[in-house]
Amino acid sequence: MSKVLETRLEIDLNALESNFRLLKSYLSPKTKIMGVVKASAYGTDSIITGKHLVKIGAQNLAVAYIEEGVKLRKAGIEVPILVFYPQLEEIQNLIDYQLTPSVYTHRFMEGLIQELSHHDIDSVGIHLKINTGLNRLGFELSELDSVLKHLNSEKKIKVAGVFSHLAASGSKDEIEFTKSQIAKFEEARSFFKNHLGYDFESHICNSSGILNYPEAEFDLVRAGIALYGYGNNPTEHKMLKAVASLKTVIAQLRTIQKGDSVGYERKFKAEKTTKIATLPLGYADGISRIFGNGKARVLVNGKKAPIIGNVCMDTLMVDVTGIDCEEGDEVEVFGKNNTVIDFDIEQQTIPYEIITRISQRVTRVLV
Ligand SMILES: *Cc1c(COP(=O)(O)O)cnc(C)c1O
Q1: Is there a catalytic annotation at residue 24?
Q2: pTM greater than 0.85
């Protein structure tokens, strides 16, 4: 069997649908759901996932970069696509493929105006991004007057949306801060409602925002991680179903004796007779070295097996002592039966990072 078939990322669209319905149940029926499919739909497959999200009722999609949006358009997806971080270099594609830019600097707005002067189109819709406390990207509240002035100087740019992003919507310790972000956002929103003379969509909630602050749903919500089966705290994880399952098979089994070592730098030393299995995936496939040396567990025939020694580029070894298994047996690295929370024993990182890191070398399979 080829490597490609042995290690695969299975995508479960029923789980995606179940997560979508759960999020929907938190929202008023008129609120639109924007499916966030950046980074290959959180490591799955942006076309498969994006198409299915549209099919089950997502009215909008969002990506990080213009190139990601172009890929969706070429696959025939026609719903509005918001681009969170459009780069000036790619701006012609933004226009040609009718993608909607998030706009958070005057510099980008100027670039957009320049580009539009070369195109025979009436107007382009943008979503203005407001910084309400994440301090990553967005216009400040103190800049709203100058933004309005810039907009009024250019008839070809229309505000289709105004939005902001929450810094800690999944954190119980930051409820006051989150509420202050929502209040600042409402201020910006009112400003544009009062001064633009036409209506637009407002949005601030990400996945945890939907689950914890449904009162701030506004016209639209941006659902990412929850669609893929994870949240930002244990309560949220429990309600959701993992969409991606990373599977492989045992490439080789061996029994080592007390004092024998495993892997590079001999980081694992057996204290007793130990049965080990070598799996054909490694850090080049997206399983970081931080998961070596007992920091993560995979599932072998229903039993948890810790990764031992250092993770190699194309392989890793697990301790299967006491587990009934043979070469060729299937292993769930993480997924439906071994969530990334179970896999990442010490929670060294977050589900977002684990699932988006699985490299393109790993074949995606629909189940
Ligand atoms: C990635 C992203 C989201 C989705 O966030 P989740 O926590 O995955 O739901 C929403 N909005 C913006 C601006 C993002 O960058």
Answers
A1: no
A2: yes
Ligand 1 mutation target, pool 44, 46, 213, 222, most atoms within 8 A of CB: 222
Q: How confident is the model at residue 5 (pLDDT cuts 50, 70, 90)?
A: low
CATH of domain 31-228: 3.20.20.10
Average pLDDT on 331-360 reads: 97
198 φψ region: left (φ > 0), alpha (ψ -120 to 50), beta (else): beta
63 lines ligand 1 (CB under 6 A): no
Q: Where are the domains of the chain?
A: 31-228, 244-366
Fold agreement between 31-228 and 244-366: no
| CA–CA gap between residue 291 and residue 6 (Å, rounded) | 21
Q: Which CATH architecture has domain 244-366?
A: Beta Barrel (2.40)
